[in-house]
Amino acid sequence: MRISLQPGYVLHSRPYKDTSSLLEVFTAEHGRVSLVGKGARRRSRGGSQVALLQPFTPLLLTFSGRAELKTLTQVEAAGTATNLRGERLYSGLYLNELLVRLLHRNDPHPTLFARYARAVEGLQHGDDIEVTLRGFELQLLDELGYRLDLTTDGSRGEELQQDIWYHYDPELGLIPCPASAKPDRPAYQGADLLQIGRGDLAGSARLTARRLMRQALAVHLGDAPLRSRELFRAQQAPSSPSHEPSQASDT
């Protein structure tokens, strides 16, 4: 099987043997695909593929094979390389790690692919980081079949009320807090939830969105920590303010 000139992005790469690379890529029509780039790190007169096979660069990928690990046979740039730095770089790495951790291989997600491309472009051009991350996280949950309804009480099917507090239940969604709720269980005010549903992260809705998305994604991520968050924390000055990916998904 040969796939030609498939739009895609490198999510992760690691060295393989002397000059090759093992790649996890996200493609428009085939979802997450594992590739081996034979000789991808070999220097040549015309330069090596390693200059192209970088995260956040829009690519056209040609690959073949019937096994789960396919062979990259050609790569071309499909646009300008995206140069993310600082917090925006770690936010992009966070998105990549979510896709590697949560998407099954060879499962197409064209809508999510388009959302990812917009998110990378938005990080490059100065869009609000948290709005970008929260929107992507919501789309990702939807694509995984776990849509988070920010308008409806999951236990009664009624509209959320602004002055009522809600818990997140992985099976039911947002449900009213019982009077006997434990104080250490996350609770979210209806007004904030409705505001987030409108795409507005002003004021207290910003922190609410972080906490809620962290809780919703943790169900699927399991106990293993996200490497992108650890990298950000290691680089962050202790005194500097943060919108880091760890806060962005509320770890």
Automatic annotation (TrEMBL):
InterPro entries, per database record: ARFGAP/RecO (IPR037278), DNA_rep/recomb_RecO_N (IPR022572), NA-bd_OB-fold (IPR012340), RecO (IPR003717), RecO_C (IPR042242)
GO biological process, one term: DNA recombination
Top-level taxon of the source organism: Bacteria
An annotated GO cellular component: bacterial nucleoid
Pfam families reported for this sequence: RecO_C (PF02565), RecO_N (PF11967)
Domain named DNA replication/recombination mediator RecO N-terminal: residues: 1-78
Keywords from the UniProt entry: DNA damage, DNA recombination, DNA repair
Xref: HAMAP family: RecO
Record function comment: Involved in DNA repair and RecF pathway recombination.
Similarity comment: family membership: Belongs to the RecO family.
PANTHER family (UniProt xref): DNA REPAIR PROTEIN RECO
Protein name, UniProt field: DNA repair protein RecO
Gene: recO
